[in-house]
Amino acid sequence: MHRKEFLKMMAILPLLKSSNGLAQLLLANKPFPVTERMPVFFVGHQDFSKTPHQTPFTKNLRTMGASVTPIAILVMSAHWLTLGDTFVNLNSQFSTPEYPSKGAPEIGKLIMNETNTKEEQSRDLDHGAWSVLRHLSPDAKVPVLELSIDMSKPLDYHYQLARQLSNLRTRGVLIVGSGNIVHNLDMSALKFWSSKPYDWAMEFDNWVKDRIDERDFSSLFQFEKLGKVADYSVPTMDHYLPMLYCLSLCESDETITHTFTEVTRGLSFRCFRIS
Known about the structure:
This protein has helices at residues 9-12, 21-28, 56-66, 105-114, 127-136, 155-165, 185-189, 199-213, 217-220, 228-233, 241-248, and strands spanning 40-44, 72-82, 86-89, 117-120, 144-150, 173-179, 256-260, 263-264, 267-268, 271-274. It is α/β, with parallel strands linked by helices. The model is unreliable at 6-19 and 23-30 (pLDDT under 50). This is Dioxygenase.
């Protein structure tokens, strides 16, 4: 997806309305009772080792996960990208060895009934999903499903899809975006001898934090105005998009809490909670 397409969002946002269809469908589906509105988590993922590490970052994830009791978890990961279609993972059982959880095909079908998405039953969880889920829900007892990110779609598509998904929050579904606000692997590799962050990485991460705190979400769709700082921090949109999905789910009466802050080389691991 070309970055310029994201600028279209500024003109389209006021015209977009959330769908009531999914809410009506969910309310009519008795197996999914109405619940208090679940939070939304954005996680700057790391720790892809076979054995999960105990670090301040992973301790933060466990604290975030322990604060909620969802009936299912929906993940939008920077590592399941598609072109031309959006897919819902409808596996009833995942064989991902790092996180052998059950799927949530019933909720996936509800999403498909009200959105322009297709089903995928053979795909296991990618590492952007299991690397955070094994800390957010370490016993793997909560059913999981994953939604792909279609990189061919303009920004209004992603915004509308997020708004349609927002109704899941009152049906006990925890929505998790897994990506990184700053994600430049090439520049990080050049700094292998040190974990000290680049100045541009710190600047961009702090700029995003300020825009979130000020509820100036529109500026986050125009990040290119920062010039080289933005070019270095977001060389591709894959890891930035999950954050935009999460912010699109934010309601006007909700607070946003930054639960973890760390920038290493050219990578940001900032996490936040919307609730």
